[in-house]
Structures are given as C-alpha cells and as structure tokens.
Specification:
The complex is a heterodimer.
Chain A lengths: L1 H4 L3 E7 L6 E8 L3 H12 L7 E6 L11 H5 L23
Antiparallel strand pairs in A: 1-2, 1-3
Chain B lengths: L29 H8 L12 H20 L1 H5 L8 H26 L5 H9 L17 H18 L8 H29 L3 H20 L11 H6 L7 H19 L9 E3 L4 E3 L5 H11 L3 H14 L1 H22 L1
Antiparallel strand pairs in B: 1-2
Helix pairs in contact in B: 2-4, 4-7, 6-7, 6-8, 6-10, 7-8
Classes of the chains: A alpha+beta, B mainly alpha.
Chain lengths: ~100, ~325
Amino acid sequence: MSDRRSWPLFEVFVRSRRGLSHVHVGSLHAPDAEMALRNARDLYTRRQEGVSLWVVEASQITASSPEEKDSFFDPAGDKIYRHPTFYDIPEGVEHL
Amino acid sequence: MVRVYGNDFAPQDAEPARPAAPAEIEPGLEDFWRIVGADGRIEPRDAMPEDYRRSLVRQIAQHAHSEIIGMQPEGNWIGRAPSLRRKAILMAKVQDEAGHGLYLYAAAETLGVDRADLLDLLHSGRQKYSSIFNYPTLTWADIGAIGWLVDGAAIVNQVPLCRCSYGPYARAMIRVCKEESFHQRQGFEALNTLSHGTPEQRAMAQDAVDRWWWPSLMMFGPHDAESTHSEKSMAWGVKRFSNDDLRQRFVDMTVPQSEALGLTLPDPDLRWNEERGHYDFGEIDFTELFEVIKGNGPCNKQRMAHRRGAHEDGAWAREAATAYAEKQAARKEGSAA
C-alpha cells in the first residue's frame, strides 16, 4: 500500500517520571508528528510508563557510524587521568 | 532482569546454548562473532552475516504476524464477555497484542525491511504466523484457557529471547514479556472462576482445557531432531534452549497449576518421573501441527480473510490521515511564507 509506505518513521522517547531524562523506547510510523505523539501514547504508555513524550522523525537524527567507531571514540581511550580513580591519595585522607 | 510472575526462569537443568563462531570467520565479521561470543548485543547498523539478518527478519516478522492474528480468536469474545470487568480486561489484552505486533514490526524494520512489505507477505501467505491461532474459540472458557495455556507457553518461549543477540528484538521481547504476565494471570483467574463454579461452568472449563492442551504443547515446535532452524539460531545466540527443553519446562510448571484449578490435562501418560525430576508426557501428534501449518487447520482461511479485510477496510482511514497531515503541512508552510 503506497499510503502506508509514505508515512515517515518516528523515534519515541519517554520520560518515565519527573527528575529523569527522556529515554528511547522504540519507533512507530505516523502521517505527522501530532499523530505520532498520539500513537506513541497508546503504544508505549498503556501502563503509565511516562509523564512526558518526545517523537522525532528518524530521518532527522544524525548518528555516528559503527564503521568508524574505533577512530571516533579512540581519543578518549588513553586519557584515564580524566577519571578520579587515576589518582593516588595517601591513606586516611577523607572527603576526597 | 525481566520480572515475569512465577515463570521467569529458564529450564532448570538445561544449560543455555553457547553462541559458536564458525571455524573460518568471513572478513568484516570479526566484530560480530566477538560480540555474539561474549554474549553482547548486535545493534542495527553493525556488520552481520546476511543469513543472520534474513533469519531474524523471518523470525521477528512471523512473531509480529502471530501477535496481530492472535487478536482474532480473543476479539471474538469481547462483545460477549460475561461481565464489564472481564470485558475491560479482554479489551486491554487484545490491545496489548496489537502493541506487541507493533513493537516487533518496528524491531524487524531496524534490519532494513519495510513493515508494509511484511504485511504484504503475510496477506499473500508467503510468511506464516503461529498455528495456535488457527483454532476456534468456541466458548467463554476458551478465553481463560488461551490466557493460561497459550500465553503461558508463549512466555516460556519468549523469556529466553529477552537475552537474544539482536538488541532491538531483545528489547521488544522485554516489553512483551512484562505485559504477557498479566495475560496469563487473567486467563488463569477466569478459568479458576469457572472451574470452581456451577457443574456446567466446570464442564465448560474442562472442555476448553481438553481442546487447548495439545495445541499449546505444539507451540514449541517439532522435536529438536526435526527442527530446521535451531542449530544456526543457537550459534548466533538467538535461540538459547531447545524446543524440547522449553516444552518440558512448560509441562513442569503447568501441571501443578492444573491441580490448583481442579482440572485434568487430557493426557493419560502424564505423570511425575521421580528419576528425571520432570513430568513424563504422551507423544505429540505432529501430523496435526503440520496439517495446520499447511493451511488445513479449522480457522486458517477465516483468519486470513479477516486480516485482509481489516487491512482493506482500514485503507480509507490511512488515506484520510495522510491527506490531513498534508493539508496541515501546507497550511503551516502558507502561514510561514
């Protein structure tokens, strides 16, 4: 059916309760963002799983590519001094 | 950890299958086998063997089709549910099945297929759905028996899939399994009410269990030796337990439940085997399963006709929604200019 094929894919994000970030929960097809929001309500929050919903057209998302994940994330690999566990602290020193 | 009431554990003494890389790994798939071997998850844009992708599309699509065809036997009783409470529960359950279908179609689409194409494959009979839905729901007690036995068997099949190697499928199954727990418990409760009711209600419950028991056991598929997709599926970390191990698990957990219901399971060979620590059960008539798969079950034609009809009858709503979205978009553009 050509009508269905023309509906874009939306990614759905749910904030499960106040104080938490929106988290990706899945995707759905809808003719527009408003319908996507309504469908997301029915599909992903049937049991009060959320207090807020985002829908984003999947084609609008720019993603890093799995092929270049090594070179892309490598620069952080040798900078272990960015972690607190890198540092030696004398025994008995507290609140540090 | 998925919390599934009462049955969230694997077959007790069956070891889960370990993913196994072939002796010679195709160039470019080193990461795939490393991740699968370490019990990690493959994500949509990772490199993967072509037959892994194809096999997952087939399995997830078939699973999705089963969910939406599965709405029919139960939908049959929404208008005739014995109370408002039961009606509300049944509507929620059937709506869940639609939701499960959508989670799964979305998971399949991450593998580069289009949902519309998958529906075409279902409607033209080139992709299958679970044979269990080709049996009729003759009485209200069938709704109880489906929840208890059919959803019970589905949970045993699906819980291990929550840990399968393909991320989107595993995540969809976690949602599905959480929701299936309610399905099974409401079925058990409905059946329990009948089996502790009037003699007529009790007889109705027993009749439903008599008809659904064997088809439920067939849901686990043929014996391991005859299962066509099992070996590869296990090497890929998609399938964790064999058909026979899962079936045994289902029998072991269901027999005590049947005693609580005060109903008998229609198998004269069913008895506890002290030595094995499992229930022995009778031989399954797989000729019946294969007949139903071939299209000769009691309701195959009816289910497919209904599904195609529903899709065609819904065309106007899809068209209207598209037209409305276009009109709104044009209006927005107009006011911006």
